[in-house]
Amino acid sequence: QVQYVESGGGLVQSGGSLKLSCVASGFTFWSYAMSWYRQPQGKDREWIATISLGGGVPNYAASVEGRFTISRDNTKNTAYLEMNNLQSDDTAIYYCSADGLPDSWGQGTQVIVSS
C-alpha cells in the first residue's frame, strides 16, 4: 500500500524558511520521480516541483523557481522541499507524490506564512 507521510510544516514569518520531508513506503522509491504539490485553502491542488529518479535536474513551477529546492535521499525513501523567502501566497497544505502511481495522498503538512 502506497503511503506518504509529510512533515516539517509550521508557522513562519514572511521571508522565512522551512524544510519539508516526505517519507514514502509501499513502492520502490528509487524507481519513481517524486513531486511536491500544494493546496491553498479553497483552491485546487497545484504542482510545484518534480525531481527525477536519481535526483537529476529538477523542475519547478514559476511561482517557486529560485526560492524552493527539491531533493531526495533514496537510501531513506525520503523526498525534501526546502523553501526560502516564503511569502503569504505560499500558505497551503503541502503534499508529495510519486509520478506514475495511482492517485494516493498523505495527510499533508500545513505551511502558514504570516506577513
Name the features:
115 residues; mainly beta; 49% strand; globular
Radius of gyration: 13 Å
The helix count comes to: 0
Distance between the termini: 40 Å
List low-pLDDT spans.
none
Category by helix and strand content: mainly beta
**Beta-strand percentage range:** over 45%
Pattern of helices and strands: EEEEEEEEEE
Largest sheet: 6 strands, mixed
The coarse silhouette is globular
Average pLDDT rating: 96
Number of strands: 10
Describe the protein's architecture and organization.
It is a single chain. This protein is mostly beta strands. It is built from no helices and ten strands. Strands 2-10-9-4-5-6 form a six-stranded mixed beta sheet, with no helix packed on it. β7 and β8 form a beta hairpin. The chain is globular and about 40 Å long.
Provide a brief overview of the structure.
By secondary structure, the chain is mainly beta.
Task: Please specify the SSE layout and strand pairing.
Layout: E1 3-7, E2 10-13, E3 18-25, E4 34-39, E5 46-51, E6 59-60, E7 68-73, E8 78-83, E9 92-98, E10 109-114
